[in-house]
Amino acid sequence: MQFSTKVAAGDRIRTACLVVPVRGGQADAATRLLDAAARRRVEAAIASGDLADKAGATLLVALDDERLPRVLLVSFGDGKPVAARTFLEATRAAIRHVAGTGADDAASLLHEVEVTGRALGWKIRSQVLIGAESAYRFDSLKSRKDEGKDKGPRPSRWTMLVGRDEDREAGLEAERAAAIADGMALAKDLGNLPGNICTPTYLADTARRIAREHKLKCDVLDEKQMRALKMGSLLAVARGSEQPPKLIVLHYKGAGARQAPVVLVGKGITFDTGGISLKPGAEMDEMKYDMCGAASVLGTVQAVAALGLRVNLIGVVPTCENMPSGRATRPGDIVTSMSGQTIEILNTDAEGRLILCDALTYVERFKPAAVVDIATLTGACVIALGHHNSGLFSGDDDLAAELLAAGREMNDPCWRMPLDDEYQDLIKSPFADMANIGGRAAGSVTAACFLARYTKAYRWAHLDIAGTAWKSGANKGATGRPVPLLTRFVAGHAK
Ligand code: BES
Ligand code: MN
Ligand code: ZN
């Protein structure tokens, strides 16, 4: 779907479907943009009572005009400002309704609705992100493509009609949101690809492609180089697999060399069987999504590069597969991480932190302004927060506030979790500097505490996206989160 903004001029509008909000029984825009005959049709449709008052209800009105064959009325209740969530749901319903008609393009006036605590930019961005979400298909592995694939998802164009004084800001916001949507689509594609296709090598090739397309520097470290760096923890996870591990480093330089870079580190376990601490079989296929942190880093670097933001950004992806084999790490094995700290691996299924800790030590060399790691790290985080908020962990209140605000503004929320030193006691080991698991209590917190031991050299935050990176059930699939949050956060560091 292509998104743009346009200044609405008089009643000369030409579109296959005009999307009009109805508030308190009034379609205000209709009086401005429709001719008398069309206006009567719309008024009669509203008067008929076929459009429910409930926000998000929709009614399609056919007009006898080839320049404007349809109007979609979208109910927003009684005319008071609506809640953000109401606006999002109504927008979703409207786009779904348009997609079910023959309309190949639509022009929207939804942002004329007043939304509590939200400005124009948010309303524009929300339409773009919801539109892109509804247009997304993952059918590259089906021999018979999903219906309508040849024509592409409909509508193919979504134009937002704004006032003359709004056009600059709205246009810029639509452009930004479209780049973010593309980054999300990349992250979704990578997440949805199965483990036999999306291997560490595949992720590295994808990073190299992004680098080629946007003229970025991309280094991919192989096993030998990781051994030279003494990444004993990452290599302990990779041991059981036939797939060679990689450490991907993607540099985007949008600001002068003196500006310290923002560094994003994404967990890239391309399949997590649990290793010798093997997972149970039910839904194990979903562990192909265990590289969604990595995917969100690649999607964000792509979006930031596409927008040419004036910021320095480094995306880092430690990636391997977690498999059992005769060579695999056993529970009880003790390894030495790149930092020199030793780890007793009590459970080989707590592998995410083991690959992240070496990557987090590696990035010290970049003297970062801030480091954020993103990982499908713990089932415990899903129990704590469900599927709405990502878990945010940071000892730095300012950095946490930046990430919370970015998530809120992008409808990609996170919730701050505790990281008190008291929890560190839970990962003590009698034989090594630390164990890689605590007990059942506070599982997502002890995982974050483990990472905290490797991030003392810079400002750091951790996002646990185990509950937000993909959906299970009938609409199974990667969500592309938290690309919107991350892109907004990085943009906040631009000059
Ligand atoms: N990738 C999983 C976390 C996960 C589990 C994400 C389920 C989404 C849904 C991670 O590597 C893992 O297995 N974590 C263990 C840690 C435990 C052994 C301390 C978990 O959460 O069970
Ligand atoms: Mn695991
Ligand atoms: Zn995992």
Question: Which fold does the CATH topology of the largest domain refer to?
Answer: Aminopeptidase
Unreliable segments (pLDDT under 50, ≥5 consecutive)? Answer: none
The DSSP helix count reads 14
The CATH homologous superfamily of the largest domain is named Zn peptidases
* Helix/strand/pairing category: alpha/beta
Work out the count of structural domains. 2
CATH architecture assignment of the largest domain? 3-Layer(aba) Sandwich
Shape: elongated
The tally of strands reads: 20
Report the helical percentage. 25-40%
**Distinct small molecules bound, one entry per kind:** ligand BES, manganese (II) ion, zinc ion
Q: Which CATH class of the largest domain?
A: Alpha Beta
Any overview of this molecule?
The protein is an alpha/beta fold and 495 residues long. It folds into 2 domains: 2-161, 3-Layer(aba) Sandwich (Leucine Aminopeptidase, subunit E, domain 1); 181-491, Zn peptidases (Aminopeptidase), CATH 3.40.630.10. Helix content is 34%, strand content 20%. The protein has 14 helices and 20 strands. It has helices at residues 28-33, 36-47, 84-99, 120-135, 167-192, 200-214, 223-228, 232-238, 292-307, 352-362, 379-385, 397-409, 443-452, 483-491, and strands spanning 2-7, 18-22, 58-62, 70-75, 105-108, 157-162, 217-221, 246-253, 262-266, 268-272, 312-322, 333-336, 342-345, 370-375, 390-394, 414-416, 434-435, 460-464, 470-471, 477-478. Strands 7, 8, 9, 10, 11, 14, 15, 16 and 18 form a 9-stranded mixed beta sheet that branches. A 6-stranded mixed beta sheet has the order 1-6-5-2-4-3, with helices on both faces. A 3-stranded mixed beta sheet has the order 12-13-17, with helices on one face. A hairpin with a 5-residue loop joins strand 12 and strand 13. The chain is elongated and about 80 Å long. It starts with a strand and ends with a helix. The model has no long low-confidence stretch (mean pLDDT 97). The structure holds ligand BES, manganese (II) ion and zinc ion (ZN). Ligand BES binds at residues 272, 290, 347, 349-352, 376-380, 382, 437, 443, 466. Manganese (II) ion binds at residues 272, 274, 349, 351.
